[in-house]
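ok trying this again, last paste got cut off
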Amino acid sequence: MKTIGQKIKSLRIALGLSREQLSEIIEVTHKSIYRYETGKSLPDTTALVKLATYFDVSTDYLLGLSGLKNQRKEEYGKIRQSGKYNEIYKRYLQSRESHDFQKKIHTFGSLQHGKMGKLCTAVRLNGVVGQMKIRQLRSGS
């Protein structure tokens, strides 16, 4: 089984990156990349997540806990084959829109009750997602 360093090196080489290029991408020194690849040190959690994200692999794969190089693609394939992709995607969009709307309502509440006496906030609902418009009114207008 490959070590984490061997996996990092093979992924880097497969993309045609130098150690310097990879170090800039994940914001560590090129010496750190060298130490990871030679097994002299291990990436900290921040670097590990950045490496996994950049290479589009799971952290479990890099750590040797999973044999799957890209678990996300496997899971995506299973969802696609099940025929539930559209349903799951619609639910994701609805939850995202709901979250965005809740953030706008929170902002509305903060502005309404804050020290901004001249600020009038109007919320206009447009379907599931609320569009927030903020207008500043001049006193006496």
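PB: full thing came through this time. Residues 4-69 form a domain with the 434 Repressor (Amino-terminal Domain) fold (CATH 1.10.260.40).
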